[in-house]
């Protein structure tokens, strides 16, 4: 009788261990909730653009291309000079045609010059005749979805947006990790939860290992 009672007696709880577990659980819950709320928009953005990136054919007909010609000041392009006044040319083209994007190429040879500007969902190419100062501009706008896709990839977006992508990746990692920590303290669902985490990882690996060429 006494032995049976002793066997059923729970082991004493370490007060420090109990306090530590409560603090970890509380901190993880707080971080998980507020990081999720703070990054809700960016998580939704990268989720949605992951889908549109995977199906570019859905939005292939949104491309708009325009062709324009114009005249530059010969002092900027003349073949009598060794180089082209690149800054003046680019600034004039931006003002005259409301071009956007950053300069990705400015190539100068003996008789011609070419300028390329690019941004998310946007490309502008200019061909310049140095002898006459005449130029032809081809401007292509790929639409809102293409802009979002390029933002997802960080293509032609500049350093500030690349930092934004890094921050988004860190936030998503923290949300996932704090979710795993929270699951540890959900005793009734812990085993099922971790089994599902493992199953999800195995399914992902299985698709990669067996179905990806």
Produce the secondary structure layout.
Elements: H1 2-8, H2 15-38, H3 40-54, E1 64-71, H4 74-77, H5 86-97, E2 102-108, E3 112-119, E4 122-129, E5 134-141, H6 144-153, H7 158-184, H8 190-211
Antiparallel strand pairs: 1-5, 2-3, 3-4, 4-5
Helix pairs in contact: 2-7, 3-6
Give structural notes.
The chain is an alpha+beta fold. It folds into two domains: 16-57 and 158-204, no CATH class; 64-141. Helix content is 57%, strand content 18%. The protein has eight helices and five strands. It has helices at 2-8, 15-38, 40-54, 74-77, 86-97, 144-153, 158-184, 190-211; strands spanning 64-71, 102-108, 112-119, 122-129, 134-141. A five-stranded antiparallel sheet has the order 1-5-4-3-2. Strand 3 (112-119) and strand 4 (122-129) form a beta hairpin. The protein starts with a helix and ends with a helix. The model is unreliable at 1-9 (pLDDT under 50).
List keywords for this structure.
18% strand; alpha+beta; 5 strands; 5-stranded antiparallel β-sheet; 213 residues; 2 domains
Structural class: alpha+beta
Mean pLDDT, as a whole number?
A: 86
The level of helicity is 55-70%
- Uncertain stretches: 1-9
Rounded Rg: 29 Å
- Number of spatially distinct domains: 2
Enumerate how many helices there are, as a single number: 8
């Amino acid at each position: 009788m006494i032995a049976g009672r002793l066997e059923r007696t729970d082991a004493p709880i370490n007060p420090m261990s109990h306090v530590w577990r409560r603090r970890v659980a509380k901190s993880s819950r707080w971080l998980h909730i507020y990081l999720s709320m703070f990054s809700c928009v960016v998580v939704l953005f990268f989720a949605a653009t992951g889908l549109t990136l995977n199906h570019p054919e859905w939005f292939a007909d949104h491309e708009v291309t325009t062709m324009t010609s114009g005249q530059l000041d010969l002092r900027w392009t003349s073949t009598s000079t060794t180089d082209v006044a690149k800054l003046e040319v680019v600034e004039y083209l931006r003002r005259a045609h409301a071009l956007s994007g950053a300069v990705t190429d400015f190539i100068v040879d003996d008789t011609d010059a070419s300028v390329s500007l690019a941004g998310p969902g946007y490309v502008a190419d200019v061909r310049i005749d140095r002898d006459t100062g005449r130029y032809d501009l081809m401007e292509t706008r790929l639409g809102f979805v293409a802009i979002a896709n390029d933002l997802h990839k960080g293509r032609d977006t500049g350093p500030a947006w690349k930092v934004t992508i890094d921050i988004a990746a860190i936030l998503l990692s923290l949300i996932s990790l704090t979710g795993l920590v929270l699951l540890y303290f959900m005793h009734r669902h812990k085993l099922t939860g971790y089994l599902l985490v493992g199953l999800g990882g195995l399914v992902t690996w299985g698709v990669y290992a067996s179905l990806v060429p």
